[in-house]
Amino acid sequence: MYPEIDTPALVIDLDVVRTNVTEMAKVAARNGVRLRPHIKTHKMPELARMQLEAGASGITCAKLGEAEIMADAGIDDILLAFPLWGEPKLRRLAALRERARVRVSLDSPDVAAALGRLGGPPVEVLVEVDTGQHRLGRPPGRPTADLVAEIAAIPGIEVVGLLTLAGHAYHSRTPGELAATARREGTDLVSTAEMCARDGIELREISVGSTPTARHVAGVAGVTEIRPGTYIFNDASMMRLGVATEATTAARVLATVIARPTPERVVFDAGTKCLTSDGSGSPDWIRVAGVPYAHMEFLNEEHAVAQLEPGHHGELPVGTRAMLIPSHACSVVNLFDIAHCVEDGQVITELRVAARGAVR
Amino acid sequence: MYPEIDTPALVIDLDVVRTNVTEMAKVAARNGVRLRPHIKTHKMPELARMQLEAGASGITCAKLGEAEIMADAGIDDILLAFPLWGEPKLRRLAALRERARVRVSLDSPDVAAALGRLGGPPVEVLVEVDTGQHRLGRPPGRPTADLVAEIAAIPGIEVVGLLTLAGHAYHSRTPGELAATARREGTDLVSTAEMCARDGIELREISVGSTPTARHVAGVAGVTEIRPGTYIFNDASMMRLGVATEATTAARVLATVIARPTPERVVFDAGTKCLTSDGSGSPDWIRVAGVPYAHMEFLNEEHAVAQLEPGHHGELPVGTRAMLIPSHACSVVNLFDIAHCVEDGQVITELRVAARGAVR
Fold it and tell me: Which domains does chain B have, with CATH numbers?
């Protein structure tokens, strides 16, 4: 399997990527919403361009460093879905605004007030709402409507909409629970925007969605934009949630068996430095593609230790190569400088993970 | 706090580093064992040199890529504590052996046989023993003694000793349990080496130890070498095990509060892309230095969400800077290109994390 690539290595199947990108663009088009993919999953301008060419209206970034790299590649419509704070970042934002349309999300008047002093045209802001993840934002309804009014009154700021991430949907136990959480992600924001309108503030953007919720929330009346990220690669978490299959996972870690200490124990040369600890402890949080009888037990920094089911003991001898499907594709891609890209089973190129490590 | 550094950022306190390095060198000297620190924790040749100047006899690396970077910096005594497999790696090992004394650990005749075909002087090998971590190696005693005999018979290979990592010691619940596990790490290897001697194979190296077990196992008669890594920086895991205090943690993530959605919830601008998911779920797996009433709840990729105890609600307003003590220093350092180094409370230099991402 790809003998020209030494292991461990990040391998991306571009055929699967294209299918995933096209499918999500169709979901958006079918529901009449804009698609603004989060590029944190791939961190590569080449793949952001592919998403835009397939119909995305712009991109989402978490950090300025990511946005700057995407702007360097000519991408000019960026949502920075993170509260920006501090003079160095505000200076960088001002420079970024010279070459791209930039919106920023936030959840506090403090952050908005500093942004409002930037100068130039008003900063377009989306106010983040807590639809159940309990990370950023106030609850929907009156708490958020009051916050919107407070922020809208800040000079230099234009509140253009509401934004949420139903991150708690990742913990859904059934497809029904996932669908219900996703729909509420949309209806909570739409009803809050209606409350803002009654307060005299018209909001034109209702921005929602993650990969697991996108297909459900895109159909909620009033939603204007979905922001899935993981869908371009998918991962074992998406498989567990039922929104991906092994065949639709595109970013994998090619690894080699370097030890077989017991008949049932298989040790690969890829640990948390390639796969992260994200999701560890969940059943089959990392999968061995095509080897359903191997179950990941634990990772150390450079080792992945799996157990083989009875009936398969002694298989996968030292030297065997396998593709490990990560639990969380986004954080895995962040560990690699280079992705090896394959098409039709052949290695065709390398892509640089240009925004790797862009934490500021 | 360090206003010249934008957040999030990796900050290393060199005063604490020097103390930690000196203390462990004393532990080794006092017990008459050699110290071969694992450089995976810092990944920086400058700090490896500091360890050698303080008395270390050589270094330990997990991956060839790390070893090559250390050899580039003139370090010439390297233990590669990982089974090497495949032609590209064997070619690199041959080149590395031209400029450094290199030992390799492994746990299978398959891996040893390939190494034995390298040519040149025999490859010095340490056979890895499973003292309870259940990762690599066979159990101590007869299973390992038989393996040693089998590997020693392979042309081109010289078995010089036994090696183990009592990784299960990280799960110790009490200091007594930790000490007992550590001592057994040593006695298991020593008694196995005695069995090998009775079989006619004299082993001169008994290489053990991690940061939590080092102080205990260094005193076991027959142990020749300890290989702690984390001690140079320490982390919240070492604090939980009672082998470090907040004052002896040297590698921290400087972060800024970017949201205060509720009186008790504090959100920092550093998530798993800076701190990893290692250890998540353990109580106080990540600590806010000097803020004992803040308790980390969960991380997402770019967010750390902490809760304040009653009586402290409303503290840490947006813009507050804090030092986050990671759960696992080694994997955190691997996420950064640059470490900001401080001495006596002043930022004095930057060091490049030269072996970041060296997974091959």
Answer: 15-232 (3.20.20.10), 243-352 (2.40.37.20)
